[in-house]
Design a protein that fits this description.
Helix content: 25-40%
Distance between the termini: 40 Å
Structural class: alpha+beta
Largest sheet: 5 strands, antiparallel
CATH architecture: 2-Layer Sandwich
């Protein structure tokens, strides 16, 4: 699906995300990262305009997600992937590394986006738990 033909639910979610100060990610039904807001860009050290769309395998490893034990998290175990696959809300705390190499602990809540045509994608909001 061309980026200008995204489902209306994803277009509306992107509009909402553009106007909130909480970091947020948006993926389509295939798990492709189709947008993240400026707040997410500040936390991760990379703007969406610089990154562009990314497949799950790429965005799921780019920020080095790590478990509490310091073990790498598989992209399929990240909250957005689980929310898509299982069509349910998911919450998880884990570590990430920004584009500049700063390590942070974040908490992520992800949920599926469902429209009249069924599953359309998923959205996650997250925050820096390191700043506590």
């Amino acid at each position: 699906m061309a980026s200008d033909q995204r489902p209306v639910e994803l277009i509306l979610a992107r509009g909402l995300m553009s106007n909130i100060t909480t970091p947020a990610f948006l993926v389509d039904v295939q798990g492709t990262l189709v947008f993240f807001n400026d707040a997410a860009g500040e936390l991760l050290g990379l703007r969406y305009e610089e990154a562009g769309p990314m497949e799950l395998a790429q965005w799921g490893t780019r920020f080095m997600p790590l478990s509490e034990d310091g073990e790498p998290l598989a992209p399929d175990d990240l909250p957005l992937a689980v929310a898509l696959r299982e069509r349910r809300p998911v919450h998880l705390a884990f570590g990430v590394r920004s584009a500049q190499g700063d390590e942070r602990q974040i908490e992520v809540s992800a949920f599926p986006i469902v429209g009249n045509a069924g599953l359309r994608g998923a959205m996650a909001i997250f925050w820096d738990a390191t700043a506590g």
